[in-house]
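Suppose a colleague, Dr. K., hands you the sequence of a protein chain of 426 amino acids and asks what its three-dimensional shape might be. Before reaching for any lab equipment, you can write down a predicted structure in token form. Begin with the sequence itself:
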Amino acid sequence: MKKIIFSILLYIFASGGLIAQESITLDLCYQKAIENYPLTRQKELLPLTNELKMKNLNKNYLPEMMVNGQIHYQSDVTKTPFQNATIPGLEPIPTVEKDWYKISLDVNQVIYDGSITGRQKNLEGINLEIDQQNIDIELYKLKERVNQIYFNVLLLRENMHIIELHKTVLTAKLKDVESGIQNGIILASNADILKAEIIQIEQSLAELNIGIQTSIDILNEFTALELNTSTAFEMPDISIDMSGYLNNRPEYLLFTLQQNKLDASKKVLGAKLLPRLSAFGQAGYGRPGYDMLNPEFDDFYMIGARLHWNIWDWNRSGKEKDILDLQSKIIDTQKETFDKNIRIDLQNKIAEIRKIEEMIGRDLQIIELREKISKSTSSQLDNGVITSTDYLTELNAESKSKLDLQAHKIQMAKAKLDYKATIGNL
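The predicted structure, expressed as tokens, is then:
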């Protein structure tokens, strides 16, 4: 039996099955958040909508067929001056009936539409790109929200790690102090001070646990993952190049697409002034037919071609193009304003990165000094030279310096990621 249990435990240890710690990356959180976001499904539906619009526009080239019918009674009809005259050898001129009946099939086939259909199709294609780009902007904002939550978990966990180490040191020191109290070397109040500090640390750990759990719950809501407090969040390896500048923000591309739409709209306006040629036909049955003097029901037909050319629209199209040009200039100012704000924001991001680099360098120097001081005060407390309060002051300073270093490392990664987010490289 013991051999079986040992074999099972050995297998678990070797395979890492039950004791392997699940890990997560920021890129995976991006991927799952986007997959789980409702707007992603909308992006998949947009091409289907565009495809239907294109099919409808293609039908402009198909013949139009309409059935027309008409019944009416009129107060008078056309007559000739010889309507009632009797001419030897000729039949009397018939009288046109006042009640008319007609039904016909009219067919119209576009031969040339001034390229308006092709230009409308191009406009719809740009509309699709704009709709998709608007969704990309929202998904980019989603990534930025995931960044905040992910790094919040990293920072809170680092805080917890340092505080737990602090608690471990205090717990060990409490045992030494209690031993000194029993030997009459140290006052009993020193133990109470350490115990109070440990309780405060436990309170801080409880607050951090709640913060971590809340952040993980929010991340699960975004990603539909099943992350928990035991999931390891990997620190992303982020590299940036601050030597050049290229604005890749999705909002910036949207401005360009909006201007493309204005250009396409101008081309549609221009097509409205081009000539249009079509063929038509009509076949029908009624009374009277094309022969107005035939009082009987008769069939009739007609085929031909039709030219439509609006050679002058009182410069209405020209004014509409002027409006589109002004709108394009307005977008130019919006692009310049957006780009300027991005450049200003980047300067702040670069300054933040350099500041944190400087702080990390100082943190390393401070930690080295604080460790020496804590080691010295620990020995002094053991010999009763100083009180627990004095020791705690130095130990807290050491713990804070280590906490500052780890926090600054995480802040550095976050600052670099913010830099990439600002220029649109997430």
